[in-house]
Design a protein that fits this description.
With 385 residues, the chain is of the alpha/beta class. It contains 15 helices and twelve strands. The structure holds pyridoxal-5'-phosphate.
Length: 385
């Protein structure tokens, strides 16, 4: 057994630079904190790097999903086909609109993205939309799904919470459907704490989302502050889903490092893949080609024998100080979902939810930290044989 290292390796580590702190400090000193010019600048920069007509800044990725479903017209009686191998927000957004999430299975452990064939099987006369999640920043088959949705008159929503700047066939993820929802949550590829963005090429969607994020008021506080509007009307029942200026400034500052950070994530992922390929007990999902397209938000592995997962985590944590996580428990297996949607059966999703283990990955991870993780896995696997 190798010597136990003392430094812990977190699942994710956030490193802020002086330019980030300066950008936020400058904003605090400006005296204008709610949505204003920096938010607008972020929207323009984000849309620009994505190649979409519009990006709308929001208070979270969940808000972006909610408003994407609203903009797709989801309401009571409507069904939206969603994966269950995702964060619960993908399905919750449908319920917020009064719609019904209908769960589709994933392709398998090697490709845990939503299965277009199962999506097609789940379409009914009540289906209005399909939500594709780019798990870990790896592209789901949104090219295939976009065609299916076009043929069947459905809206395609991309949950691109993990996938800023990831792409498929040269097109950025989040731009294949009616709208793409991005998250700026703490541990994400572009993180500011809490925040989100909705991308769309559809002018009407952008207008509606901008309205709904701020109580459907016809002018913003910033407009009124600048004397551009005296009063306002309220034209729908909206929400307070605004982003604020310090977080917009932080996102803008961090965006300048997005591409090099993703490049480093890809390198680290390839190094992991090379070494993990030697371990027959583990399946590493996706392919090297997928890595080149991905934002590599997280590093998922799948255990061939799920019953060893708890023991492996325990050894990695207790003896090697390596943090791991499970992305994701299946949404349809959560109590709140089981009660509402009993009898859902998704064999591949259920197996993935029992087999998956997320291991540490962040752009400034060192070689010795990565080595520590790999040693922990090798030792943990030997200990659970
Ligand atoms: C796949 C997925 N969808 C949606 C969300 C929701 O994003 P947020 O936490 O910004 O609301 C997250 C992140 O937490 C996520 O991982």
């Amino acid at each position: 057994m190798s010597e136990t290292p003392h430094r812990s390796v977190p699942l994710f580590d956030l490193k802020l630079e002086a330019q980030d702190i300066e950008a936020v400090t400058e904003t605090l000193q400006s005296g204008w904190l709610t949505m204003g010019p920096r938010t607008q600048e972020l929207e323009e920069a984000f849309a620009d790097q994505l190649g979409s007509r519009h990006a709308v800044a929001l208070s979270s990725g969940t808000a972006a999903l909610h408003l994407a479903y609203k903009a797709a017209g989801i309401g009571p009686g409507d069904e939206v086909i969603v994966p269950s191998f995702t964060f619960v927000a993908t399905a919750n957004g449908v319920l917020y609109c009064g719609g019904q999430p209908v769960f589709a299975d994933i392709i398998g452990l090697e490709n845990p993205s939503i299965d277009p064939a199962d999506v097609e099987r789940k379409i009914t006369p009540r289906t209005r939309a399909v939500a594709a999640v780019h798990f870990g920043g790896y592209p789901a088959a949104v090219d295939v799904l976009a065609e299916l949705c076009r043929d069947r008159g459905l809206a395609l929503i991309e949950d691109a919470a993990h996938a800023p700047s990831a792409q498929l066939d040269g097109r950025k993820l989040g731009t294949f459907g009616l709208a793409g929802a991005f998250s700026l949550f703490s541990n994400k590829v572009l993180s500011v704490g809490e925040g989100g963005l909705l991308a769309t090429d559809d002018d009407d969607v952008a207008t509606r989302v901008r309205q709904l994020r701020s109580h459907a008021m016809t002018s913003t506080t910033w407009d009124r502050h600048r004397g551009h509007a005296l009063s306002y009307d309220v034209v729908d029942i909206g929400f307070n889903y605004r982003l604020d200026e310090p977080r917009a400034a932080l996102a803008l500052a961090r965006m300048t490092r997005l591409e090099p950070e993703i490049a480093r994530r890809r390198e680290l992922t390839m190094l992991y893949r090379e070494r993990l390929a030697e371990l027959p007990d583990i399946i590493v999902p996706y392919t090297a080609e997928d890595v080149a397209r991905s934002s590599c938000y997280v590093m998922p592995i799948m255990l061939r024998e799920p019953e060893r997962r708890a023991g492996l985590c325990q050894v990695m944590r207790a003896e090697h100080h390596v943090q791991t996580s499970i992305l994701y428990p299946a949404v349809h297996e959560f109590s709140a979902y089981r009660e509402r949607f009993p009898g859902v059966s998704l064999p591949h999703t259920e197996l993935a939810a029992r087999s998956e283990l997320t291991i540490p990955l962040y752009p400034h991870m060192t070689e010795s930290e990565q080595e520590q993780v790999l040693e922990a896995i090798v030792h943990g696997l030997a200990a659970t044989k």
